[in-house]
Sequence to fold (309 residues):
Amino acid sequence: MDKDAKIYVAGHRGLVGSALVRELARLGYGNLLLRESRELDLRNQADTLALFQAERPEYVFLAAAKVGGIAANNSFPADFIYDNLMIQNNVIHSAYLNGVAKLLLLGSTCIYPRLAPQPIREEALLTGPLEPTNEPYAIAKIAGIKLCQSYNRQYGTRFISAMPTNLYGPNDNFDLDSSHVLPALMRKFHEAKVSGSPSVTVWGSGTPYREFVHVDDVARASLFLMERYEGWEPVNIGSGQELTIRELAEKIREVVGFTGEIVFDSSKPDGTPRKLSDVSRIHQLGWRHGIELMQGLRDTYAWYLANLC
Ligand SMILES: NC(=O)c1ccc[n+]([C@@H]2O[C@H](COP(=O)([O-])OP(=O)(O)OC[C@H]3O[C@@H](n4cnc5c(N)ncnc54)[C@H](OP(=O)(O)O)[C@@H]3O)[C@@H](O)[C@H]2O)c1
Fold:
């Protein structure tokens, strides 16, 4: 990508989009095309097309999406499938019609079957039933991958897709009703410390295994793939390291400095029992994560204290 190439970062205010903007700026890319959802609703086909016709971006990072934790996916399944299908359809079709040189779609490892062999290889896609709690969202993301592959096959486009594992970092969503597990725990432990509460309740049994990668690593991996990957198959982005929700809670308690008890509420859903991505494909391409979990948690808590408290 030339340093003056016009680059559209769809979803630039989000967790991933804002990290992409930081990384692009750090590397000297100054010609960014950015629109907030209130300026441009990407579910609107005509408005999306009009942006591409007017601005003619060369590269597109598709990080705009309706995203949320187990509770949000459970409560708003129709929004999660409709919004994500519409956003992907409109951006990918407009990119094709307006000669975009290359596009990167960001999906998620929740696209893989609930009981896929671990660690999860990209080849596990569409080999078994999905996790019910986020199936509508996962189906939309799978459709996005198939859109990219189909446009590549029919029109010779260069549309690639990357599947990050669970993310965390600056600009994450810390709203307890719609956030993912990591920011939710960080807020709960912080508020318990401040209020002097004797304990923090964690959803589920604490036994599920999860993998996390810092969003700045995901931004670097995304630029790495945009520069070097031409394959049609999705590429996992992860650390390849996992821990239980209990171990995660204990690490966040340590980072926040809370000294009280951790209580597990097993009446709440655990979600899929284990979700570790196989990152050998991106390792073979020459990329590895750089931010270890404890360092990432400390950075994120510092950001939380500086921005949300
Ligand atoms: N968070 C995770 O743990 C995680 C894990 C794996 C993969 N991912 C993937 O990473 C991508 C980005 O997720 P994220 O965590 O960065 O999400 P996020 O923080 O919720 O950001 C989503 C962004 O999408 C924009 N957006 C949503 N609906 C829109 C619409 N109708 N029109 C225009 N813009 C719209 C929002 O714009 P405004 O801010 O202007 O409203 C926001 O900037 C998603 O594809 C997701 O699948 C996320």
Notes: The mean pLDDT is 96. The first strand starts at residue 7 and ends at 10. The longest helix spans residues 77-97. The chain has ten helices and twelve strands.
